[in-house]
Design brief:
Blueprint: E1 2-3, H1 4-9, E2 27-31, H2 35-47, E3 52-57, H3 62-65, H4 77-91, E4 96-103, H5 111-120, E5 125-132, H6 143-152, E6 157-160, H7 166-176, E7 180-182, H8 185-189, H9 193-207, H10 215-236, H11 240-249, H12 260-269, H13 273-280
Parallel strand pairs: 1-2, 2-3, 3-4, 4-5, 5-6, 6-7
Helix pairs in contact: 2-4, 4-5, 7-9, 9-10, 10-13
Bound molecules: flavin mononucleotide.
């Protein structure tokens, strides 16, 4: 989460963006409320080679919301969409996501409206922490909202909120149908949680016979195999032809996958491993 204004005016430390090729796919999250800074920061980041971006509309910390940024944008859905649209114009369709809470408070829950707007703008994904900004971290994250959102938009939804164990994350994926999950406090307490979830997903894949897989498990299985396949190809072959080969293999994995046709056409047109890995996230 980096201040767009800070990047433009030079006060935010650019070292927050230090990275290495293994950080792939990499998404830079910006926060801000002024279009000119968002736009200029995007130009600078694109020039430096960053490709995927996120807009923070979920941070409820007063220091951020009092400037109109973070979750305060949920009070102004049109402005939020204007900023996100500016980012999509810079980065290209499918390369920008937005992190949301359900709304500012109980009486103004704009997340569905915003997500539909994002879909029209050709955003690539939407992340939701299903609490209001006023709630901060109190109460419980409402996973039912995640399900509601994933069922109402074609965009991939990343679910966040009260996922403190890998098991809870797997339950959340299976119960809500979201296409990804995000760990925050759980990862601070247990940094191995990401690997644990990967292991759980692999085990689910290995243990269950193919004919017993329900469709949700099957999608998780396909995704996990596709990511492993890419990882192995990248590790063992540095030849460009390995990449082109993978571009022809992966579309075959997509039988029965949501929006397979669109995903296939994006996979065959993609330009590098990073983009390929990114697209597979949305199986
Ligand atoms: C220490 C900390 C830092 C966070 N930083 C960010 C951030 O930079 N961007 C963001 O979108 N959300 C951020 N969040 C919010 C989380 O992404 C997440 O939505 C929220 O904490 C709920 O998930 P959890 O129950 O797993 O903590 C942060 C949360 C914590 C606790």
């Amino acid at each position: 989460m980096i201040s767009a204004k800070g990047l433009v005016l030079g006060s935010a430390t650019w070292s927050l963006l230090d990275t290495c090729p293994e950080d792939s796919p990499l998404v830079v999250q910006l926060f801000g409320s002024e279009k000119r800074y968002i736009s200029q920061a995007m130009q600078m980041l694109l020039q430096k080679g960053f490709r995927f971006f996120d807009l923070n509309a979920g941070c409820a910390v007063r220091k951020v919301t009092k400037t109109g940024a973070g979750a305060a944008l949920l009070r102004e859905p049109d402005k939020l969409l204007d900023l996100a649209g500016e980012m999509v114009r810079g980065a290209g369709p499918g390369r920008v996501g937005v992190k949301l809470r359900t709304g500012w408070d109980q009486d103004s829950q704009a997340f569905l409206q915003v997500a539909h707007g994002l879909q029209e703008l050709q955003a690539g994904w939407v992340s939701l922490h299903p609490r209001t900004a006023r709630q901060g971290f109190s109460g419980q994250a409402q996973w039912s909202r995640l399900k509601e959102l994933q069922e109402s938009v074609a965009l991939p939804v990343i679910g966040s909120g009260d996922l403190f164990t890998a098991r809870q994350a797997l339950d959340c994926l299976q119960q809500t149908g979201v296409q990804g999950v995000m760990f925050a406090r759980g990862a601070l307490a247990h940094p191995g949680i990401f690997q644990e979830l990967k292991d759980l997903l692999c085990r689910a894949r290995d243990e269950v016979q193919e004919q017993d897989l329900d469709s949700e498990q099957r999608l998780l299985q396909i995704k996990s195999i596709a990511l492993e396949h890419i990882w192995l190809s990248r590790k063992y072959s540095r030849q460009p032809r390995a990449f082109f080969k993978m571009r022809t293999v992966l579309p075959k994995y997509l039988k029965g996958v949501r929006q397979a046709r669109e995903l296939r056409s994006r996979i065959v047109a993609c330009r590098d491993w990073e983009e390929l890995e990114y697209l597979v996230q949305w199986i």
